[in-house]
Structures are given as C-alpha cells and as structure tokens.
Design goal:
Blueprint lengths: L5 H13 L8 E2 L1 H8 L3 H13 L3 E4 L3 E4 L4 H25 L2 H19 L3 H19 L2 H13 L1 H8 L4 H17 L3 H27 L2
Antiparallel strand pairs: 1-3, 2-3
Length: 216
C-alpha cells in the first residue's frame, strides 16, 4: 500500500510558514502550493485543513486559505496557557532527569551564555527553543508536549520578534539558568516556579512590544 503523502506535505508547508516564507494574512494559492510541494489539490486541501486545525491557517469565504495572523493579545493568552503546561513539564523534568539529561541542559545554557556574550541573537533564539524542547522531552508527557507544540507554533513570529529586542536575551538568560539549576537539583516545585516566572516575563515583554507597535 503506498505511503500517504499528506503528512509530508502538511509538515513541509508548516515548516515554510514557521520559517516566515509566507507572511501573516498572505494568501496560500493552491495551484502554486501544488507545484511547489508536488501534491494534488486533494492532498493540499487536506494539508491546509490540518494546519487550520493547528491554528496556522484560516479560510476566508470565497477567497480560500491564508496564513493566520496571531495578535499580541492572543499571543499573551497563549503564553498564559503555556505557563500551566510548561510549569508542569519543568516539575516532571526535575523528577525524571538523568545525569546525561542534566549535562545536556547545562551545556545548552552554557552555549546560551556564550551567544549572549557574543551578541548572537539568532543563535540565542535557536538555543532557547532547543532548551524548552529538551525539557519537554525529559518530562515525557505526550499530551502536554503535543499541545505545547501547537501553541508555540502559533506564536513563533512574536517569539522571533522578541528575540531581536535589544537586551532581552540578557534578561531571559538568568531565568533559563534558574530553570536548569532547579531541574539539576531535582527540585520539582522550584523548577515549576522558575518556569512560570520566566513565562510571566515573556508576557510582560509581549505587552511592551504591543504598546510600542500601537505607537508607530
């Protein structure tokens, strides 16, 4: 039986959207996407429906699909939900982390500090995402991880904008170091508090960005 091509097309389009190849509110023209991804219209439409369910695409009446534009207000709401889920995962990671896991987390924050010292903002952003993903993997909570992937995907544009704010990485670095220190010490409650504190800081940064945008 031939392999279903829909998952591959869905993932390829998802990756392109998250990479910024398609801007918020940009129309997703079916014939162009079929040519790019080598897919039939049936497969492509199924992929678009899947991405709509994930909150990355929306359908307009008589106009087809476009990339969904997530507002700062919604990004803040999403981060409020992330506080609950990622707090849980940080606590679980503190209970489950092996010596190898801890060494890997410490290496990530060491690399993050080097990126800050070298003013490598994009590198820091990449390592930031890797650290959060590593904590999710260590926690091994499939439901929370699945929900978080969807939530983070919806705010990726705002996360990227935040990573470029001067001085932001220097603020978030000690927060990440505190999270890793708590996980390394096998302190679930402290790890959860550190994660929640970090994400509250993200919300405040989003609010500052939103206020600045309204003044332009």
């Amino acid at each position: 039986m031939p392999e279903d091509p829909k998952p591959a097309v869905t993932e390829a389009l998802r990756t392109a959207i998250l990479a910024g190849e398609y801007a918020p509110r940009q129309r997703l023209v079916e014939i162009d996407l079929c040519e790019r991804f080598g897919a039939s219209r049936f497969i492509l439409r199924s992929a678009l429906q899947e991405l709509a369910a994930q909150g990355l695409v929306e359908f307009q009446r008589n106009r087809g699909a476009r990339v969904r534009d997530v507002s700062f207000a919604e990004a803040i709401e999403i981060t409020e939900v992330r506080i609950l889920l990622e707090g849980l995962l940080a606590a679980r990671a503190a209970e489950r982390a092996s010596k190898a896991d801890i060494a890997m987390l410490r290496k990530l924050v060491k690399d993050m500090r080097a990126a800050v010292n070298n003013s490598e903002l994009l590198r820091y952003s990449e390592l930031n995402a890797q650290l959060h993903a590593a904590i999710r993997d260590i926690a091994a909570h499939e439901t929370a991880a699945r929900l978080l992937r969807q939530l983070r995907d919806q705010t990726v544009r705002h996360q990227f904008s935040l990573s470029l704010v001067p001085g932001r990485s220097a603020v978030s670095l000690p927060q990440h170091e505190a999270i890793v220190a708590a996980i390394s010490a096998c302190e679930p409650e402290q790890a959860e508090r550190a994660m929640r504190s970090h994400l509250h800081s993200v919300i405040e940064a989003f609010r500052a960005l939103s206020a600045a945008a309204t003044q332009l």
